Amino acid sequence: MTNPVSVTVEDGIALVTIDNPPVNALSLAVRQGIMDAVTRIEGDASVGAAVLACAGRTFVAGADIREFGKPPVEPHLPDVLAAIEASRVPWVAAVHGTALGGGLELALACHARIADPAAKLGLPEVTLGLVPGAGGTVRLPRLVALDDAIDMVTSGKPVGAKKANGIGLVERIADGDLLADARTYAAELNQSGKPEAVSARPPREVPGDDFWAEKEKAIAARARGQASPVEALHALRDGVTLPVPDAFAAERARFLRLRDSEQAAALRYMFFAERNTGRPADIEGVDPLPLDSTGVVGGGTMGAGIAAAMLLAGMTVALAERDADAAGKAQERVAGILDGSRKRGLLSDAAHDDALSRFSAHDNYGALADCDLVIEAVFEEMGVKNAVFAELDRVCRPDAVLASNTSYLDVNAIAEATKDPSRVVGLHFFSPAHIMKLLEIVRTDAAAPTTLATAFALAKKLKKIPVLAGVCDGFIGNRIMSAYRRECDFILEEGALPQDVDAAMRGYGFAMGIYAVQDMAGLDIAWAMRKRRAETRPSDERYSKIADRICELGRFGRKTGAGWFAYPSDGAKAGQPDPAIEAIILEESARLGYERKTFTADEIMQRILSSMQAEARAVLDEGIALKPSDIDVTMVHGYGFPRHKGGPMFAAGIRD
Ligand code: T1G
After folding, report:
1. For a tag on the chain, would you pick the N or C end, based on fewer CB atoms within 10 A?
2. Which residue CA neighbors atom 42 of ligand 1 most closely?
3. Cβ proximity of 489 and 638 under 8 Å
């Protein structure tokens, strides 16, 4: 095994370089290499200071997550960091890319830090069900204010170099070549003397019990049953109140305990699952279309969101609507999304202007003639979609990929509206399309490898998570959601109320219950789907009429002021239980002869999970999904399944 850590000395400055592609993870070899570098430097009297840097695209992105399932092997990271901190010479960390987790802890063990202006620094351990395990919760609150430390450690969100410098996390930002500036900094410290080790400095603040109690209440509420954010807060409290050696020991013990937890296993599973979703074997080595020029048909919520996503990924987008008025409204919607990104600081003024310059809205399809790919996002009705595809078939290049954003309909039938169905694919985006990462790529019977390769290339350009789905009603996610939505309606007939079901789902870790979700999305689309299926529904299949009776009253959810819940006119976010709905439910229970019973939250969740898992098994057996982890990625990223539970398949112990 070659040593991934090298040391060169020039003018009394040692340059320690870590080179462990792809992200310089702190594998055993790297930890040993750094320990050896410390020993080498301690023994070389010509060295007056050291710079610690990384080759490749980023500074250390953390401990090697792939080692987590195994017993930790020496040298342990805390010992490596203690050796750096105890060095006789000052160490300067030169940070570029993303210094995350153990990577930031490595930088904190150095005596000073300089960052590339585009660098990001964070402690994302909580997203893996952990807390920092190498001194992060002890050193960080000795460099930055406690509130900043709490934000970073309990959210796992990184901070940019400018903010890091502002809060005291990095002392300097490079204004030229990072390594050259780092060497200069190290040489200065060699002259001025080694700064005090971070762990030897006093904590910036040591607040009282009330402070911690208030923080814990807010963090626990946001965590929705995930343990690590609150554990991270407790680790920070130890970090600023215990003697430093005890604080290090307490943090390590907490880290090791969490490392073996079910939630950490689930979050690690999801980390790799979302990066390794299945790809069809027959697209390997197939060149996709270039995707410089793309088109969208339909400028409603989905069409505008899809257009914005492609603009933000650097593509040129022409959008076609049915008339000038609709085209104008689409232009406003897309401009509004881009402006929102700019206002949230996600888009610079220049990037905003550049994106907008690559967008055009039209009241005809002419502008789509030269596109590599066109995505249709019009009304969810087969006749409308067939008409659009017939027109696209006439206008677009014969090799252009034509995609439908349909969320339920048969993409094979849509493809039949074209002369060459091999170029048609389903691209099911999730709203808001420029934010949600999941993209269901629906493979039609006739899809050519180039068509699918182009769809996967688009997902990569959009930084989306592609999940391959076969054609069926609802593909993977909507089909499974329909199944557990039906089960929830049965539970209502047997004794529960919508607020009981939603409370049980929130208690399991969902952000929203299924009834609040339906009210937010609108009840009419699913109603139309149920009516479409009515002719072919088996007569012996259990079917609840509650949802239909609600829709027949014109209650389509939040947009009509009432659905499963009532929405007061003052625009209050949460819906209120509505006696009118309870009355309908009680009538249906009586009509069906159910003696209503009380359900516990666990009983409700058991019924929901069982229905999810049964439908998921059918989706796998029918080849609609390639593997169980693809289903888990879909349900976590598209339907709010709690990430720290890993997904319905992981929760059932089913693995790829
Ligand atoms: N360990 C092992 N492999 C990793 C890795 C890691 N920490 N991070 C990324 N990879 C792999 C990833 O699986 C993929 O592999 C490739 O690198 C590119 O990743 C002691 C205990 C750094 C922002 O949580 O957030 O330190 O698929 O596709 O979009 O207190 O990777 O190519 O074979 O995501 O450019 C804390 C996790 C660990 C950072 C880059 N660190 N990584 O994103 O590329 S816990 C993290 C990321 C810890 C200490 C504790 C991202 C990234 P492959 P990618 P990217």
Report:
1. N
2. 61
3. no
Q: Which atom of ligand 1 is nearest to the CA of 276?
A: 27
Ligand 1 centroid from CA 381, angstroms: 42
The Å distance, Cα 505 to ligand 1 centre, comes to 30
- pLDDT reported for residue 487: 97
Centroid of chain to Cα 104: 21
Closest to 169 measured CA to CA, from 236, 234, 123, 232: 123
Please state the rounded mean pLDDT for residues 362-380.
Answer: 95
Protein residue with its CA nearest to atom 29 in ligand 1: 463
Tokens of 400: 């252009």
Q: How far is the CA of 577 from the centre of ligand 1 (A)?
A: 44
Segment 69-108, tens digit of pLDDT: 788 889 999 999 999 999 999 999 999 999 999 999 999 9
Antiparallel, parallel or unpaired: β 465-470 and 438-443:
parallel
Query: Going by CA atoms, what residue is nearest to atom 55 of ligand 1?
Result: 23
In single-letter form, the type of residue at position 541 comes to E
The residues annotated as belonging to the active site are 105, 125
Cα distances from 147 to residues 109, 181, 233, 538, in angstroms, run 21, 30, 11, 59
Helix (H) or strand (E) holding 17: strand 13-18
Structural domains of the chain, with CATH = 5-260 (3.90.226.10), 282-469 (3.40.50.720), 477-623 (1.10.1040.50)
Instruction: Look up tokens 């819940």; give the residue.
Output: 565
What residue type is 73 in one-letter code? V
Neighbours of 250 (CB within 10 A): 18
- For residue 202, say if its preceding peptide bond is cis, omega within 30 degrees of 0: no
Q: What is the pLDDT of residues 206-254, one digit of tens each?
A: 999 999 999 999 999 999 999 999 999 999 999 999 999 999 999 999 9
pLDDT digits (tens, 9 = 90+) for 164-204: 999 999 999 999 899 999 999 999 999 999 999 999 999 99
Nearest CA to ligand 1 atom 13: 272
pLDDT at 481 over 90: yes
Tokens of 404: 């439908």
531 Cα–ligand 1 center, Å: 46
**Tokens for 481?**
């959601």
Phi, psi of 628 (to 5 degrees): -55, -40
Q: Which of 18, 34, 54, 65 to mutate to test the pocket of ligand 1 (most atoms within 8 A of CB)?
A: 65
Among residues 335, 135, 340, the alpha carbon closest in space to that of 247 is found at 135
Query: Which among 467, 475, 456, 468 is positioned nearest to 410, based on CA atoms?
Result: 475
Cα of 409 from ligand 1 centre, angstroms = 37
**What count of other Cβ atoms lies within 10 Å of the Cβ of residue 632?**
31
pLDDT digits (tens, 9 = 90+) for 430-457: 989 999 999 999 999 999 999 999 999 9
Ligand 1 contacts (CB < 6 A) are 22-23, 25, 61-66, 77, 98, 100-102, 105, 124-125, 128, 130, 132-134, 136, 275
Gap between the Cα atoms of 134 and 354, Å rounded: 43
